[in-house]
Design goal:
Layout: H1 3-13, E1 17-21, H2 38-50, E2 56-59, H3 62-65, H4 68-85, E3 90-97, H5 101-114, E4 119-122, H6 128-135, E5 141-147, H7 153-156, E6 160-161, E7 164-165, H8 166-174, E8 183-187, H9 195-201, E9 207-210, H10 219-226, E10 233-237, H11 239-242, H12 250-271
Parallel strand pairs: 1-2, 1-10, 2-3, 3-4, 4-5, 5-8, 8-9, 9-10
Antiparallel strand pairs: 6-7
This protein binds orotidine-5'-monophosphate (OMP).
Organism: Maribacter litopenaei
EC number: 4.1.1.23
Domain Orotidine 5'-phosphate decarboxylase: 16-254
């Protein structure tokens, strides 16, 4: 999917919500455990109930790898279901990969070609040759971790090197990578006040912003500091939406939560004349 297609979807649906499919057998409604593939059945129900309220889905790969071959099969069925039934959705493999060049090239093949995701999250720590193999895929997007939502972000990301915070170096240096037009960045919603500085370095790039909902980030603050004329934001919520209820009505409860966020997003877009 191109960035232009994504922007068009955001304007059409009046939402920049990304729903995180962090599907955990210990948290899904117990009645689903009787199904042959409970993870897929849960995802399918959530997707069918919420697709009109969001523009992206982000399965976090850890939640699938945790169940071995069966988990991987559930992931495969989920991305196939999305690509077949909702091809307008932007899909994010939250895999946080990145390795020496030839290994990164294999990760890229796995997620972009075999599974056919639109994008993948990547850790920038190993540098240029670990990121560029992902950037060589046309209309596929590489979402580089810049300033993450967790407390550990302060261990390294905000530390200064030659007087400049490391996350700012990640943003500035990555712009020189071959294929950098395919880059997006992760900035945690819990770090919204940093977005003013971030936008000085990457004024237009799309940001994946997790941390609204369970981690307490504010959608309004994220918009205040991070929104662009093309919106430039995908705001993710996982647990806050998908685990709204563990009863039979779980998909409907998830829809209500997504609907609430969509309404707030529409308000933010309308108040800035971005629709
Ligand atoms: O790359 C991510 O998506 C990510 C980056 C980050 O800085 N913080 C963060 O929470 N995430 C992911 O976003 C999701 C957040 O989930 P909730 O806190 O349940 O909404 C999880 O899948 C995290 O792994």
């Amino acid at each position: 999917m191109t960035t232009e297609d994504l922007v068009q979807q955001i304007r059409k649906k009046k939402t920049f919500l990304c729903i995180g499919l962090d599907t955990d057998l210990e948290k899904i409604p117990p009645h689903l455990l009787e199904e042959e593939d409970p993870i897929f059945e849960f995802n399918k129900a959530i997707i069918d109930a919420t697709h009109h309220l969001c523009v992206a889905y982000k399965p976090n790969i850890a939640f699938y790898e945790a169940y071995g071959i069966n988990g991987w099969k559930s992931l495969e069925r989920t991305i196939e279901y999305l690509n077949k039934n909702y091809p307008e959705q932007f899909t994010i493999a939250d895999a946080k990969r990145g390795d020496i060049g030839n290994t990164s090239a294999r990760y890229a093949k796995a997620f972009f070609e075999d599974l056919n995701f639109d994008s993948i999250t990547i850790a920038p720590y190993m540098g240029k040759d670990s990121v560029e193999p992902f950037l060589s895929f046309k209309n596929k997007h590489t979402i580089l971790l810049a300033l993450t939502s967790n407390i550990g972000a302060f261990d390294f990301q905000t530390k200064k090197i030659d007087g400049k915070e490391l996350y700012k170096e990640v943003l500035a240096i990555s712009k020189s990578y071959h294929g950098s037009q395919n880059l997006m960045y992760v900035v945690g919603a819990t770090k919204a006040e940093y977005l003013t500085e971030i936008r000085k370095i990457i004024p237009e790039s799309f940001l994946l912003v997790p941390g609204v909902g369970a981690q307490g980030g504010s959608l309004q603050e994220v918009c205040k500091y991070g929104i662009t004329s093309d919106v430039g934001l995908l705001v993710n919520s996982s647990r806050g939406i998908i685990y709204a209820s563990t009863a039979m009505d779980f998909a409907n409860a998830a829809k209500e939560k997504a609907n609430d966020l969509q309404g707030q997003m529409q308000k933010e877009l309308e108040s800035r004349n971005l629709l």
